[in-house]
Amino acid sequence: MDTGIDPERAALIALDWGTSSLRGFLMGRDGLVLAERATAHGIQNLPVPGVAGFEQAFAELCGDWLAAWPDLPVVAGGMVGSAQGWVEAPYVSCPADTRTLASRAAVATTAAGVRVVIAPGVLHDPAGAAPDVMRGEEIQIAGALADRPDWARAACMVLPGTHSKWVRVADGRITGFDTYMTGEMFALLCRHSILGRLMPDGGAADAAAADAAFAEGVRTARASLPGDLTHQIFAVRTLGLTRRMAPELLKDYLSGLLIGHELTSGLARAGRSPDDGTPLLLIGDGALCRRYVRALELVGVHPAARLENTAPRGLHRFAAAAGLIAPIGEHHHA
Amino acid sequence: MDTGIDPERAALIALDWGTSSLRGFLMGRDGLVLAERATAHGIQNLPVPGVAGFEQAFAELCGDWLAAWPDLPVVAGGMVGSAQGWVEAPYVSCPADTRTLASRAAVATTAAGVRVVIAPGVLHDPAGAAPDVMRGEEIQIAGALADRPDWARAACMVLPGTHSKWVRVADGRITGFDTYMTGEMFALLCRHSILGRLMPDGGAADAAAADAAFAEGVRTARASLPGDLTHQIFAVRTLGLTRRMAPELLKDYLSGLLIGHELTSGLARAGRSPDDGTPLLLIGDGALCRRYVRALELVGVHPAARLENTAPRGLHRFAAAAGLIAPIGEHHHA
Fold first, then answer.
1. Which residues of chain B make contact with A178, given a CB cutoff of 8 A?
2. Which of B192, B220, B238 is closest, CB to CB, to A132?
3. Which positions in chain B touch A263 (Cβ < 8 Å)?
4. Residue A159 falls inside a structural domain
5. Domain count within chain A
6. What is the tens place of the pLDDT at every residue in A40-89?
7. Are residue A107 and residue A16 in the same domain, yes or no?
8. Pair B316, B322: CB distance under 8 Å
9. ipTM over 0.85
10. Is the separation of the CB atoms in A29 and A325 below 8 Å?
11. A15 and A137 belong to one structural domain
12. Chain B: nearest CA to A36, how far in angstroms?
């Protein structure tokens, strides 16, 4: 089969397997992505139920790669290792790095005998507070830190999303993190609450007005006292009802409120002040990360970088830590 | 028609007309309820759409009272005066009392010529903050203050619910208030969020364990820093996932978190400390108010009273302020 790829270069199949999507990467020894594919076969949307669904989704995505390179190692990260996944890879505790993940990896073996090495998630279990968990983000973080020893030494990594993560990194390891239900809360309020009734479908046509509404939400959040959030959320309705704010701007204002609350708490928990030397990094979807950059700018914090799609590089590092491929930098000498 | 009621005593028909229910009270000159009825014909659940729906719901509930006493005045409060109501009675501004409400009442007249005098809601429009609104609670407060000049002088009135109100009263008037979306947020999170998946239907069988989970939620809320709420809400999931808390207790813990946040903000905005002399009153559904009493107890605040169903007495005062009936205390001398 002609894949158009130099057969000597392929070294790894890496799967980023989440709740709603499955992404596959054919990677070289050097950590570069040679080919990339995606389907909607997330773990809650498999072609058939159960283990057979995982096998089939994997075969559909990577069958020709496996035919061309039968001996390539395969790794996977994300919800595929959860209790609802292919094989459960229980959480490892902080502090954690790719070696920790590799030491507790789980293995799913297909009917054809292909071994898929699955990364565990990470548990943060602080004394006197509720535990917190991540699954998938630890791989993105490993990717972000791959070629940046300065960030690996000490950084605050922010991964915005349905369940945003604020992650503290020190000496190359995840030392602690906090999850915020920001994205899910935003969706719930827009779709199911009394606020949604005042919100037209679609976004604001006037980008400057939308930005001003977002910024106003962030400022309101910053000025809040403990416990104010559900009061401020109700005010989204009142602002619409009294026509103090145009209906098409209410979503931006609500987004600013929720992100503003998240970063107020996140920065405080990270012990981070605006003039702190510790770099703050954003990882994730570009449009969403730009919102966070804007909100952070309003409070005087300037992210050191905004990164997208660091999962393949993280899976490559995980594979190296698991001994499936040579670490980058070492194979040159092999 | 024999209503079983001394015809000399009936003085007023009072309607408490909300979103999901309609309650009617036949009242005496002395403010006592002689008869009481309710239907599910709230303004979002009328028997037919539009104005005809209001007329029909009113006729079904009170037709025989109107037949027996054709000249009785009729008053109404609640969502019936909203933009989606029978006739809109626009909000009056704080400070507001029953005279203010009466001066801005709206009137709906039925096909048969019966006048229904509808109370407006109240707008709180503080400088430098979003406006807030209430509709219906102002009537409940008027009822609560009716025979208590001590409370009318200065009080903090808390009306728990879908949209909880914390209301400041001074010199017999509502001077300001804040709404919290506590009840709606709780319902949204239980019904539509990822948290709900871990929560079994029904409540906890073990009342002591449920109370402990609720108290733990309140304590966690009290210890929070600004912006922590969406992090603490995610922790409800993590506590369930890691089996640190039994699934049947997660709802009580979440309830404690949300109520704890509300009262932290509410007490701070009321400028109220535990040893404050200003009475704090709870008005509303008994079971829900008992939760608030418990939460307040945990922070050292002891409500002066817990009141239910003060709306009829408030509507009676509103009718007197509108000149439809004699104020209590004056008719004895007439």
1. 231
2. B238
3. 227
4. no
5. 2
6. 999 999 999 999 999 999 999 999 999 999 999 999 999 999 999 999 99
7. yes
8. no
9. yes
10. yes
11. yes
12. 30
Cα nearest neighbour of B179 on chain A: A231
pTM of the model: 0.93
The answer as to whether A81 is a domain residue is yes
Considering chain A, what is the average pLDDT of its residues? 94
What does residue B82 show for φ and ψ, rounded to 5 degrees? -80, 175
Domain of A57 in residue numbering reads as: 10-142+311-333
Which contiguous run of DSSP H or E holds residue A145? Answer: helix A137-145
Contacts of B12 (CB under 8 A, 6+ apart): B26, B27, B28, B72, B73, B74, B75, B315, B316, B319, B324, B325
A154 falls within a domain? no
CB nearest B185 (choices: A178, A230, A242): A230
pLDDT tens-digit map of A211-227? 999 999 999 999 999 99
In a domain, B156, yes or no: no
Question: Model confidence over A108-125: pLDDT tens digits?
Answer: 999 999 999 999 999 999
Report the amino acid identity of residue A182: T
Other beta carbons within 10 Å of A56:
16
In angstroms, rounded to a whole number, what is the distance separating the alpha carbons of residues A219 and A233?
Answer: 14
Shortest Cα–Cα distance, B332 to chain A (Å): 43
Same domain, B322 and B287: no
pLDDT tens track for B234-262: 999 999 999 999 999 999 999 999 999 99
Nearest to A141 by CA among A329, A324, A318, A330: A318
Instruction: Specify the pLDDT at position B7.
Output: 77
- Please name which of B263, B309, B303 lies closest in space to residue B285, comparing C-alpha atoms: B309
